[in-house]
Amino acid sequence: MLRYHPDDPRSSLEGYEGSLTQDEEAALAELRSAAQGLDLGMVRGAYGQGFEGGDHAVEPLRLCLLRFLRGNAFDVNKALSQLEDCVEYRRQHPTDRLLSKSPHDILACNLEDFNSFYPRWLMGFDKLGRPILATQYGSLRLWEMTKLTTVERMTELHAREQELLLRVLRRRTLEGGGGEGAAAERAGHIVDTAVVVIDTGGLTLRHVSGVGSFSCSLLFCYIVACWLIFGAPL
After folding, report:
1. Do residues 120 and 135 lie in contact, with contact meaning Cβ atoms separated by under 8 Å?
2. How do strand 194-199 and strand 226-231 relate by DSSP bridges?
3. pLDDT along the chain (234 residues), means of 10
4. What pLDDT was estimated at residue 35?
5. Structural domain span for residue 30
6. Bridge partner list, 195
7. d(CA 113, CA 149)
8. CATH code at 27?
9. How many domains does the chain have?
10. Residues 6+ away with beta carbon under 8 Å from 227
């Protein structure tokens, strides 16, 4: 059975794989039974191409259901409702169609110009195998971004990036980080979160004023549990 790395604090926290209480195990069994009629392959990444065009990793069913249970305080009815909404969203927005598009195809604008107003990148991976993402919100210029493309296109790009992140997490869980030493020791351990480093240096309300619909729209896209580190500057 998959476990969290011993150095991961969640390896001993209730609600996480390997440390479930009897009530939590019962809720998990109930949700598994209630969700049998849903196509959870859409949620677990069973369809479409893999990361960078390779074979894709499918999230283990237990881990998938536990995500929704933890997000709803182990309320089975609420978790089931959220699962149903997620399946319906993915039915309307197939991930294979989303990932088949390039960022340029989605935004229909100059990528260098767009990224200069929204700097973000993958820094690497921490010792637990989690991706480390960095964003410079002090350089965010939403009003300039909306001159280049639409809110709908930006929302679609965000969904694509989050889907790619989910696939990286699944692959690292099932295959490990690869390599030798600490990377090899991570193989087979659960990696289901990312570390997000946010540089807030220079961030003011004027960076987001007038385009509130964009930030609101993102609330309805893919949500990935993240450990946040706030700092200014990096």
Report:
1. yes
2. parallel
3. 86 92 97 96 75 62 95 97 94 84 95 94 90 88 92 92 88 65 59 87 64 43 42 38
4. 97
5. 9-100
6. 132, 227
7. 11
8. 1.10.8.20
9. 2
10. 130, 193, 194, 195, 196
